[in-house]
Write a structure and sequence with these properties.
By secondary structure, this protein is α+β, with helices and mostly antiparallel strands. It has helices spanning 46-59, 95-102, 119-130, 134-151, 171-178, 184-194, 227-241; strands spanning 6-9, 14-17, 25-30, 33-39, 67-72, 75-81, 90-94, 162-166, 203-205, 217-219.
């Protein structure tokens, strides 16, 4: 019987802290890639449970993150390989954001007793966003319910699933957008000083040479199955070319 390796993470490999979730976790750069280190609480088995879940998913053909057992600064845990290629225009949109776009009154900030986080609302949201191409996405999401049943997972809250989206409109557009990515929860003070903190999100702004926002921007949510092609892309092209933006 082959034993799984335990990855020994150097202390200087730590990058930053992950804000989502209730358990201690942070990003590390290890073996040429970004991994999320999740510390296991004492006597819980949380480290090997992550590994077992990933291996079962692989065995039954369900796409899941690559997971390794790990140790950092003497602490046991697991590492999950980052699966979002930000440099190529990828982004992870969590379930609460998806539901808030399509389900009227959905409270994306409510973590406990969220009675609106239902299979029916998930179906409505996915079909509302993707229309006729929604079925393969819903089928794959159903596979995770099977996985949850097999491993006894009871933690499938609305920030514990999501969709990886990709904007493929040319290297120049992706490059410029990538420079503008910030997180309000972590960078609120700096964003406010620089003129990027607004009531409506997302905010996509073309900064002046001093790095501040002087009004050349797009704000507000983007909804519907054709919103990216018919709404977002033309407005981004206008923004990047210096033309007036609605």
């Amino acid at each position: 019987m082959n034993a799984y390796r335990i990855a020994r993470i150097p202390e200087d490999a730590r990058l930053d802290t992950e804000q989502l979730g209730s358990k201690p976790k942070f990003w590390v750069f290890f073996e040429g890639h970004r991994w999320l280190f999740k510390e296991a609480r004492i006597n819980t088995g949380e480290d090997w449970a992550e590994k077992v879940a990933a291996e079962i998913a692989k065995a039954i053909g369900i796409r899941a993150a690559t997971v390794e057992l790990a140790q950092y600064a003497g602490r046991r845990g697991s590492i999950s390989l980052n699966f979002v290629d930000v440099d190529a225009g990828g982004a992870l949109v969590h379930g609460n954001e998806i539901l808030a776009l399509q389900v009227t009154g959905y409270d994306k900030g409510k973590m406990f007793q969220q009675s609106d986080h239902t299979l029916e609302n998930i179906r409505i949201a996915i079909q509302g966003l993707f229309g006729q191409v929604a079925d393969p996405i819903l089928t794959e999401l159903a596979g995770y319910l099977v996985l949850d049943a097999l491993i006894g997972n009871t933690d499938r809250h609305h920030e514990n699933w999501g969709l990886v989206v990709q904007v493929q409109r040319g290297d120049d557009v992706n490059h410029k957008i990538g420079r503008l990515q910030n997180r309000e929860d972590r960078d609120a003070s700096a964003l406010k000083v620089a003129g990027y903190l607004y009531q409506y999100i997302p905010v996509l702004a073309l900064p002046d040479p001093d790095g501040r926002n002087h009004g050349r921007m797009i704000t507000g949510s983007i909804k519907g199955p054709s919103a990216v092609q018919e709404n977002l892309v033309p407005r981004l092209q206008a923004l990047l070319s210096g033309k007036p933006v609605d």
